[in-house]
Amino acid sequence: MADSTKHPTLTIDPHTHVADLPFIHYQDNTLFIDNVSTKTLTQTYGTPLYVYSKNALLANYRTYVASFAPLSNVQICYAVKSNSNLAVLATLAHAGAGFDIVSVGELARVLKAGGQAQKVVYSGVGKTKNDIITALNAGIGCFNVEAMSEIELISQIAGRLGKTAPIALRINPDVDAKTHPYISTGLKEDKFGISHDNAIDAYHFANTLPNLDIIGIDCHIGSQLSNTQPFVDALDKIIELIDTLHTQGITLDHIDLGGGLGVRYVDETPASVSEYANALLPKLLDLQKKYGLGLHLEPGRNICANAGMLLTNVDVLKPTEHKNFAIVDASMCELIRPALYGSVMAVIPTDLSTIAAAKVWDVVGSVCESSDFLAKNRTLALNVDDTLAITGAGAYGFVMASNYNTRPRPAEVMCDDGSHRVVRERESLDDLWRGESV
Ligand code: LLP
């Protein structure tokens, strides 16, 4: 459980914090995102409010493209789950991205946003018959298959539809990603993928079935990884398999290394995308030379986390003998990461000219449970009605929001070099009970 002892007092210098967040800066003491003042944003749209920078999204995507440029046949498949707003997807689709999906709902979003089915890879541990039919009919680029029974099911359904299904097997390489256990996916006790020990048998099994085109091999070991070593270890284990498969006559077109590279929320020091690329490229170039393999990657967080923020108003200041509580209009409903994982996310003022004595605050929502906190033990100078920004909230923010306590989900706004527009309306109460009856 989240525990205040795990949250030592934290003082974040706002200027230093934003210094390496692209397209987020202070100007005349006011926080700006993509050249739009947060004051304008809150006055126009209210709070709580998700705001995104189109140019940061594009820059982050292009960093991946540039870092892996020495390799040919690279497809960056943005992980839709991290932020699935249609405008985010459309921005990336337009820039040439492919997409990693985990549901046919995400597939529908990609197509609606103008993404190409051919550039979609479909991961997910529990694909149903209908999911497979929908994805085959849409003509997706690759199923990342996670179980022996799924291989059989895809083969049967493809046969029935008179189609050939492109597949990669998602291998669980049993590598410790050294991240939060809830977001680690590559250990043998995790539910994901086909175990490394069974991988060769699984390929031979797939090879005996009709209507399958075995095109790749895939792994995704976890999320918010700081170090490149677990990625390299996973790659080594996958290379062993590729070598073995090759000697046994099974040749592939691509290797998919999943997503997972972490970001700085507060003071983490994750490898940069270019360090990540440099750690992997020698081995990937070798694979390309030997077997002609292309590369798929599935980054989510790294593209959108620091391209977005959650803006929230301070509604109530409640100092007590034990703790000072700043009650804000966002909560675990709008941003569940702190409550769910004990994540530490930066909370910074949007107006640095505010005059108040700095105190140590727990920044909490007004939801009826004590897990509802956004930040603990933060040194902040606060007044009622200040607006705070929670940075890093562009990923796994809105997408994990709920309507618990009958709270409408916030609006989402896309900023683009001084302009801004709503890309999802704030929910109304009518939205919340649509489909219900008395
Ligand atoms: N590919 C697959 C198969 C995945 O399961 C994931 C994330 C990704 C790619 C993208 O990983 P990323 O590059 O974003 O790390 N809600 C959690 C994160 C859950 C990640 C689940 N899978 C959080 O807020 O930290």
UniProtKB/TrEMBL annotation:
SUPFAM superfamilies: Alanine racemase C-terminal domain-like, PLP-binding barrel. Residues 50-394 form the Orn/DAP/Arg decarboxylase 2 C-terminal domain. One of its GO terms (biological process) is lysine biosynthetic process via diaminopimelate. Substrate binds at residues 301, 337, 341, 369, 396. Specifically catalyzes the decarboxylation of meso-diaminopimelate (meso-DAP) to L-lysine. PANTHER family: DIAMINOPIMELATE DECARBOXYLASE, GROUP IV DECARBOXYLASE. This is Diaminopimelate decarboxylase. The gene is lysA.
